[in-house]
Amino acid sequence: MEKKKKSEWFDWIKALLIAFGIAFIIRMFFFTPIVVDGPSMMPTLHNGDQMIVNKFIYDIQNPDRFDIVVFHASEKKDFIKRVIGLPGEHVSVKNDVLHIDGEKVKEPFLQERKEDMHSYQTLTGDFQLEDLPGEYETIPEGYVLVLGDNRNNSTDSRMLGLVSMDKIVGKTSFIYWPLDRIQIIHDD
């Protein structure tokens, strides 16, 4: 009887250790939670939204335009922003219209916000890539240009400069908390 109890305890401890080990590996290498801090991605993301970050996606593919990414803005702070410019591209905004290599590009995720604004207001102040820190003419390989959806209240590439791919933690598109905001965010 005593041996059976010890064996049962050992089996439980072993199962728990394996479960914790798997959870640790998944969190370290594949997925991790993050909480949105601030209004810079409004109305797409709200302050306090809790999301899952896919940490391995950019090991197997490059970012796409309009992906929402988490990156290390400093040693202690991660930011959530949207990829706007990709390597080899020239980015500018004029009269609230995004231009990539001189071509107009629609930003459907901003439409709701633009409709709520007065005709004399602009969401995104005019800028071009050369105006940003680094004064690049095109985005170099291994970098992306990121902007928040709430362009008037976002610390993004316009202040920080381009974001190196090695600073990107991963892509996020799933809000799991609060319950009334559970959704998958589409990139378009």
From TrEMBL:
The chain crosses the membrane at residues 12-36. It comes from the Bacteria. One of its GO terms (biological process) is signal peptide processing. Its main location: membrane. It is an enzyme of class 3 (hydrolase). The active site is at S40, K81. Keywords: Hydrolase, Membrane, Protease, Transmembrane, Transmembrane helix. Pfam families: Peptidase_S26 (PF10502). It catalyses: Cleavage of hydrophobic, N-terminal signal or leader sequences from secreted and periplasmic proteins. Signal peptide: none annotated. The keyword Transferase does not apply. GO terms for cellular component: plasma membrane. InterPro entries: LexA/Signal_pep-like_sf, Pept_S26A_signal_pept_1, Pept_S26A_signal_pept_1_CS, Pept_S26A_signal_pept_1_Lys-AS, Peptidase_S26. It is found in: Cell membrane; Membrane. It is a single-pass type II membrane protein. The keyword Transmembrane applies. GO terms for molecular function: serine-type endopeptidase activity; signal peptidase activity. Belongs to the peptidase S26 family. This is Signal peptidase I. It comes from Lentibacillus cibarius. The gene is lepB.
